[in-house]
Specification:
InterPro entries: HARBI1-like (IPR045249), HARBI1_dom (IPR027806). Its cofactor is a divalent metal cation. By secondary structure, the protein is of the alpha/beta class. Helices cover 45% and strands 10% of the residues. The chain is built from twelve helices and five strands. Strands 3-2-1-4-5 form a five-stranded mixed beta sheet. Helix 3 packs across helix 4.
């Protein structure tokens, strides 16, 4: 017999103070109740375990928040390891399906607030920032697992994230192989597709997204000048200002990984389950993000090389030079 903890949710969790509850589950009690209200009508109760939805939600949050083994979490919440795993996949799927609206592109007042935040950081007329982040995983079960081996020789999936100046996720794309360059992963995002077909529906005229040197220079996507050793003082100043404003996306990734520590190493082999878990954590990140959250920059150890030489984009270069002359 494997020793389990009886009535942990019923007897122990109610004793947590408000701050203790949030530290263990990242969400407040009210936010957990909102999640339960949203997921209640679609809760499938896998395996006919008759596991209460509260127990399932708290067990899944505990799993994502901590790096405790699946066996340890299962024992804590008085269930089997396989039951925990199946409830976790269902939970992440339902979060992505029914709570995806918590990740949305900044428009209206929220766009103005984001622009103001980037203005304060020193880079004007910015909608959001983009960057890539590697999520370490086990060797995946797929047709070409070596494609997920990145340049640092560990398996990972690429998370391409866009965030506003308040560190809230605006759009995410996850699941691409870790061997892919950030620019390649960017090309497969919905944002890139819309920028090609109808750019002003995302980025108003005279505004832009900012990214690092791994991204292409586009009229709606500003990146630093390539440092060839002959940059002018104003171009170097432009680069410093852009990088100082762009660091907000690195802070967002740092907060995400510090809140949901399971993302330091996902012990899943299915790419679809991996993508679902990462996306769910990003949604929950927006749900529980607070201005007082401590910024913790967690590097993934994989720095992309600058974007390969591209055809000269006259409009983009002219627009960047125009911004450079203004700041």
């Amino acid at each position: 017999m494997v020793p389990k903890i009886d009535n942990f949710v019923e007897d122990v969790v109610p004793l947590y103070s408000l701050s203790e509850f949030r530290s263990y589950f990242r969400l407040s009690r009210e936010q957990v109740e909102d999640v339960i209200t949203t997921l209640g009508p679609v809760y499938m109760n896998l395996q006919q375990t008759k596991l209460p939805l509260m127990n399932s939600v708290l067990a899944c949050l505990w799993t994502l928040v901590n790096q405790e083994s699946y066996r340890g979490v299962a024992d804590r919440f008085n269930m089997s390891k396989s039951t925990l795993a199946k409830h976790l996949h269902e939970f992440c799927y339902n979060i992505n399906t029914y709570m995806a609206h918590h990740i949305s592109w900044p428009r209206g007042q929220r766009l103005e607030m984001s622009k103001l935040g980037f203005d304060t950081a020193g880079f004007p007329n910015t909608v959001c920032a983009v960057d890539g982040c590697h999520i370490p995983i086990m060797r995946p079960h797929c047709d070409n697992p070596l494609a997920y081996m990145n340049r640092k020789q560990f398996y990972s999936v690429n998370l391409t994230g866009f965030c506003d100046s308040q560190r809230r996720s605006c759009h995410i794309s996850v699941g691409h192989p870790g061997s892919w360059h950030d620019a390649r992963a960017f090309r497969f995002t919905e944002v890139c597709r819309v920028l090609e077909e109808d750019p002003h529906s995302l980025v108003p005229q005279g505004m832009h997204i900012i990214g690092d040197s791994a991204y292409p220079l586009l009229p709606q996507l500003m990146r630093p000048y390539r440092d060839n050793g002959h940059l002018s003082a104003r171009q170097r100043y432009f680069n410093r200002k852009l990088n100082a404003a762009r660091v907000v996306i690195e802070h967002a990734f740092g907060i995400l990984k510090s809140k949901f520590r399971r993302l330091h190493y996902l012990q899943m082999r299915s790419i679809s389950n991996i993508s679902s878990a990462v996306s769910a954590c990003c949604i929950l990140h927006n749900l529980c993000l607070e201005p007082s959250d401590q910024v913790v920059v967690v590097g993934d150890g994989v720095d992309d090389e600058p974007y390969p030489q591209q055809p000269h984009n006259t409009n983009a270069c002219h627009y960047r030079d125009q911004i450079c002359g203004q700041i």
